[in-house]
Each structure stands twice: as C-alpha cells, then as structure tokens.
Design goal:
The complex is a heterodimer. Chain A is built from no helices and eleven strands. Chain A is mostly beta strands. In chain A, a hairpin with a 2-residue loop joins strand 5 and strand 6. The model of chain A has no long low-confidence stretch (mean pLDDT 92). Helices cover 0% and strands 54% of the residues of chain B. In chain B, strands 2, 5, 6, 10, 11 and 12 form a six-stranded mixed β-sheet that branches. Chain B has a four-stranded antiparallel β-sheet with strand order 3-9-8-7, with no helix packed on it. In chain B, strands 1-4 form a two-stranded antiparallel sheet. The mean pLDDT of chain B is 91. The chains are: A mainly beta, B mainly beta. At the A-B interface, strand 4, strand 5 and strand 10 of A face strand 5 and strand 6 of B.
C-alpha cells in the first residue's frame, strides 16, 4: 500500500488566493491529522479527525478549514492565503489500536509559499 | 497539557562516535513517547516508541531510547553514528489512557563530521 499521500508537493500562492491541500491514506486508519512545520518550531497541530464526519481544532487552526467525508481523505483548505501560512504541511494518520500507542504515519509533505 | 523539551538545537558528532539526544517531557501520568527522524525534504519516520513495559526500547537503524520516569526523560542513543544518520530528530509525547494528540518538541539537528 502507498501509506499517506499528499498533493501537491510544492505550491506558490499569491496573497488572498485559496487552495486545498489533499491527503489520502490507504491503511483504513480512523484518525487523521494536519500539521505545519516552521523552521526551529517543530510540528504544530492544525486540525485532526477521529473519523468520517468528525473534526476538531488543534493548536493553530486559524486560517484553515477541514472536512472528512470519507475514511481515506482529509483535505485542508486555505481560504485567504497570507504570508504567515508559508510553511511545510504534513498530513498523518493513526489507528486507534491501544497496544500500538497511536503511532502516527506521515505523508511526504507539501511546501507552500505565499507571496 | 503535555509538553516536550529538546534542549539541543544542533549537535555535531564524529562518524563512529556515540550519540545521545535529550528529550524531557511534562505529563501527569505515564505518557506515550516517540522519536521520529526527518531527512531533508522528507516526511517523518518513526524510529521507536514507548507505551508500556520495558523502559529500554529498541528501534530501527540501531537506535535505542530509555524512559526514565524519575527524570521525565526519554533520551535517544546510538553507539556508533553513521554519516547517513545526519537528519533532524523529533521527540513527541501523547497522553495514555485514551485517545490524544501528539505534542512534538522543536527538534534537534544532528550533523555528522567525517
């Protein structure tokens, strides 16, 4: 299986534009996450989902929206892009299997620049 | 809420030398603890994890980590570093006893000198 896939790999947006970052997993995981990574800051959780139709905010949700209509897909929407959203975005998924300690599997990331 | 501190932003180690990367966490109960590695331009790969049992955990690529409850630490070690180990390393903590999200440290960049 492919694991967690993300598209696009790179994108340049102008201020005020909108876009959707795509994330798909083929491991039948219930839990999915979106993180952003800024230099020297580690990963910050944007949104997460515990199953289809259920989403919740993470640490830095402002300026983003998500939806989860299927188990496999968890797109991240930027409505009005701002320079502060320049970052690398990672999608991850995990299975709610207690003895696996909620290990998260990560996609390869999307590098977004807003100018 | 849980938190993670990785005190070292950068560490340089000679190839063949031993390595220890520090991680301290804050959480009221027994946590789930993880170490991830990120090579340049890549996603994160799980090295190892602790969630119960033996406090010395073995991972991939020859890495190990030891959970020390008394010190709230989960330091990553490798006896002999290879040039291919140069990457950024992230420690993460999650709450036990039910679902929770992970909190990541800010990372430690490992440089390997010849």
């Amino acid at each position: 299986n492919a694991g967690v896939t993300q598209t696009p790999k790179f994108r340049i947006l102008k201020i005020g534009q909108s876009m959707t970052l795509q994330c798909t997993q083929d491991m039948n995981h219930n839990y999915m996450y979106w993180y952003r990574q800024d230099p020297g800051m580690g990963l910050k959780l944007i949104y997460y989902s515990v199953g289809a139709g259920i989403t919740d905010k993470g640490e830095v949700p402002n300026g983003y929206n998500v939806s989860r209509s299927t188990t496999e897909d968890f797109p991240l929407r930027l409505e009005l892009a701002a320079p502060s959203q320049t970052s690398v975005y990672f999608c991850a998924s995990s299975s709610r299997v207690l003895d696996r300690g909620y290990e998260q599997y990560f996609g390869p990331g999307t590098r977004l620049t807003v100018t | 809420a849980q938190s993670v501190t990785q005190p070292d932003i950068h560490i340089t180690v000679s190839e063949g030398a031993s390595l220890e990367l520090r991680c301290n966490y804050s959480y009221g109960a027994t946590p789930y603890l993880f170490w991830y590695v990120q090579s340049p331009g890549q996603g994160l790969q799980l090295l190892l994890k602790y969630f119960s049992g033996d406090t010395l955990v073995q991972g991939i690529k020859g890495f190990e980590a030891e959970f020390k409850r008394s010190q709230s630490s989960f330091n990553l070690r490798k006896p002999s570093v290879h040039w291919s180990d140069a990457a950024e390393y992230f420690c993460a903590v999650g709450a036990s006893g039910g679902y929770s999200t992970l909190t990541f440290g800010k990372g430690t960049m490992l440089l390997v000198s010849p």
